[in-house]
Amino acid sequence: MRLWNGWGNEDSDLTMELSDGLRALLEALVGPGTALSQATLNEVIAKVPNTRLDDHPQINTDPETRVRHARGQSLPDWLEMHSGNVDTFPDGVAFPESSEQVRELLAHAKENNLIVIPYGGGTSVVGHINPETSDKPVLTIDMAKMNSMLSIDTESQLATFGAGAPGPVVEEELKKHGYTLGHFPQSWELSTLGGWVASRSSGQQSLHYGRIENMFAGGTIETLNGTMKIPTIPASSAGPDVREMILGSEGRMGIITEVTVRITPLPEKEKFQVIFFPSWEIGISAARELIQQRVALSMVRLSNPLETTSLLYMGAGSDSSGVVALEESLSKKGIGEGKVMMTFGVTGSARHCDAAYQLALDHCNGLGGVADESGLGENWAHGRFRAPYLRDPLGAEGYVVDTMETAVDWSKVSEAAENIEQAIRTALDDEGEQVHAYTHLSHVYGQGSSIYTTYLFRIGKSYEQGMNRWMKLKKAGADQIVAHGGTISHQHGVGSDHKNYLTAEKGKLGIAAINSLCEQFDPKGQMNPGKLLPDDKH
Q1: Which intervals hold domain FAD-binding PCMH-type (predicted)?
Q2: 256 labelled as ligand-binding?
Q3: What is the pLDDT of residues 19-65, one digit of tens each?
């Protein structure tokens, strides 16, 4: 069973504890944490009001089920669940097993004027699935039982799944036939195929496999105005692409029930390599040139100097002797203070991988890069889904960690990354609080790159103080993103946290067009209101 107030499953072997070394490092970086008492599940269940829904054979109104569907995995969600300060819950949760049952539920919602919230893996980090205060009853529709592969066409390399299929199920089913989807967001273990489409997700190896919009070939969407089926066509010039109406729609237009995706044969070989560069500027040039010269890599990730040092020492725990030895070795090769760490991957046939690997290595060497020989690249691949598990042990010690991400053109990357990080780092200066912030480029394109900033700070003396601090940090980073012309979200979606920054990216006319689409599918605003569109278009 999933944790009711944190990341992962109750029996997960990926749960983490803070080492003495990491605890000492945190105290040095931001000060000693203050552990706060945590609300119990029973205490939060006691706050659940009576349901406003009439009895329905598909709808579960059990208070615990409603608590478990009340919040996602954003930092505000975490703070509310751990403090017990939760004041909105769905009135009931349905677990349909087919598109027909989803249609029945939507017909019931339409007839009874219910609010409907689609629920995939519950991994949203921007408030996608949170009920708002409303005078209308709220029905959450959990897609977990629609999680199987429905068909596969190996000749066309297409596969259809129920939208509730989580990442491991998708890969397990495809592997039986010698295929992979290759979509690996950090939430891969728990997030679902339908959720990836609804939030325009990006996987860690999108250079090779593509983002979810490249994989999404068609499917079925149940709306309050009927069923929409999107056929699988290789390419079309017949007007606007209807798939784009659903990609990133976040449940505002309907519920995705079936998804057909473009699949790829399992790779013959895969390898991940870490390269150290003397400086951030050289690392950025290396990343840009590798992608613009079309070296066939599956991923490129570049950590700035502070993230490079932070990751090396945080990963070392209480024994940093290995890191010290690595730094001494790098220093002898001209890689000293200010160094940055790039991780790149090659995926595909053995011949393809060997050629791409050597091309990348030669290019990096030409820019003064030094290849790691200790296996850091494979270590990254082995622990690629572990980062979210750190939030709970940090929280238990009085610390919180969150992230912000965007994407900008290459000409803006260096300045934007510096200014976003600096704005976050200094956002709590008025309180005398230290914020530890560092950045990496997580996805690269010919035109530009994503910028992904992680920041860690103390909760404070209360969860309310922690929330107030987060709001200041979030605004500081978001304002800089808008100032540099970046997208408010490269991979996390919009939800409720980002919606009021959307106009800067889409423009008033663009927002009006999106709003018109929502009104077409959902005239009364019953589908996941309060998400995606700015408040004035609520």
Answers
A1: 86-266
A2: yes
A3: 888 888 899 999 999 999 999 999 999 999 999 999 999 999 999 99
Q: Give the separation between CA 383 and CA 211, rounded to whole angstroms.
A: 21
**Is 448 a residue whose pLDDT tops 90?**
yes
Contact of 216 with 194, CB cutoff 8 Å: no
Q: Is 122 annotated as a binding residue?
A: yes
Distance set, CA 273 to CA 125, 321, 346, 359, 473 (Å): 29, 22, 9, 13, 33
**Whether the predicted pLDDT of 538 surpasses 60:** no
Rounded to an integer, the average pLDDT of 263-273 is: 97
pLDDT at 312: 87
Q: Which of 179, 452, 455, 463 is catalytic?
A: 452
Q: Which of 416, 415, 422, 417 is nearest to 436 (CA)?
A: 422
Q: Is 501 a catalytic residue?
A: no
170 half-sphere exposure, CB direction, 13 A CA radius:
30
Residue 123 annotated in ligand binding: yes
- 16 confidence band (pLDDT: 50, 70, 90): confident
Is 179 annotated in a binding site? The answer is no
Any idea which architecture 269-384 has in CATH? 2-Layer Sandwich (3.30)
CATH topology of domain 47-142: 3.30.43
- Sheet containing strand 158-162, edge to edge, reads 149-153, 158-162, 255-262, 216-223, 226-230
Residue 118 counted as an annotated binding residue:
yes
- Strand bridging mode 216-223 / 255-262: antiparallel
> In whole angstroms, what is the distance from residue 39 CA to residue 79 CA?
10
Q: Is 149-265 CATH 3.40.720.10?
A: no
Among candidates 442, 509, 459, which has minimal Cα distance to 26? 459
